[in-house]
Specification:
Rossmann fold; alpha/beta
Length: 253
């Protein structure tokens, strides 16, 4: 299935790739999905599965290009790029997160995204990014991750950089309890990002929600049959199930 991909540019020059109604048709619920480059996250199978299953005239799906992706980069070497940049004292993830949050603010200010109907979703490295954005943007209510990175040390590119201060998700739990719906999917033997690491993060988040009496918060982890290289693949069924779950919450169905 082909997905129409459009582009908008914020006043500071950040490119937003999206599918859905034209921006002049007023504020709509918005899903922010992160996987690889912004355009490929919308158009390239199977990475664009959430854009396919999430397609609905009642919402827009936006994506931004992750660090180490897009023109001039090899998406299969992006984790090496992240590790090298962080090891050199640069902060590519922090810079990206700042730009992404400002882009969301702009979409809301321009009455393009509805501030009461925001969700974030990510695949693998995009799951780490989506969770960080959810922690920063308190108007987000739903978070979905497919085979998400939860600890960078689990990723091969970072295993020789043990002294790095990496942006692991466990440090975010305190800032995620505003969420209403959280769902992660992970393979039962994912040796790329770590099945156990994903479980421990969800367990930690659940305990934090309990401690803060966040009874509005529903946290789920689905451990599924591993497929693909290092057990890190995501099946079409999982993409569909997760995206439809998110869409129903986003649209209040």
């Amino acid at each position: 299935m082909n997905v129409e991909c459009k582009k908008a540019v914020t006043p500071e020059g950040v490119e937003l790739f999206y599918t859905g109604a034209d921006l002049d048709q007023g504020p709509l619920p918005a899903l922010f999905y992160f996987a690889i480059s912004g355009e490929e996250s919308i158009t390239l199978p199977p990475y664009n599965s959430p854009a396919i299953y999430g397609s609905d005239p009642a919402l827009r799906i936006f994506s931004l290009t992750l660090p180490g992706h897009g023109e001039g980069f090899n998406k299969f070497k992006a984790m090496d790029y992240w590790a090298q940049e962080i090891n050199a004292g640069n902060h590519p993830i922090e810079k990206f997160l700042d730009q992404a949050v400002r882009a969301i603010d702009w979409l809301i200010e321009e009455e393009i995204a509805h501030p009461d109907h925001l969700a974030v979703c990510g695949l693998s490295r995009g799951g780490l990014i989506a969770t960080h954005i959810a922690a920063r943007e308190k108007r987000v209510r739903t978070l979905l991750g497919f085979a998400p990175i939860t600890r960078l040390e689990e990723v091969e590119a970072f295993q020789e950089n043990t002294n790095l201060e990496s942006p692991n998700l466990s440090s975010l739990a305190e800032n995620l309890t505003h969420l209403h719906n959280v769902r992660f999917y992970i393979g039962n033997r994912d040796s790329c990002v770590g099945t156990d690491a994903c479980y421990h993060f969800i367990r930690h988040l659940t305990e934090k929600a309990h401690d803060k009496r966040a009874r509005h918060m529903h946290v789920e982890l689905f451990i599924t049959h591993s497929i693909g290289h290092k057990g890190h693949g995501t099946t079409p069924h999982v993409f569909e199930e997760g995206t439809l779950w998110l869409k129903n919450h986003l649209l209040g169905r």
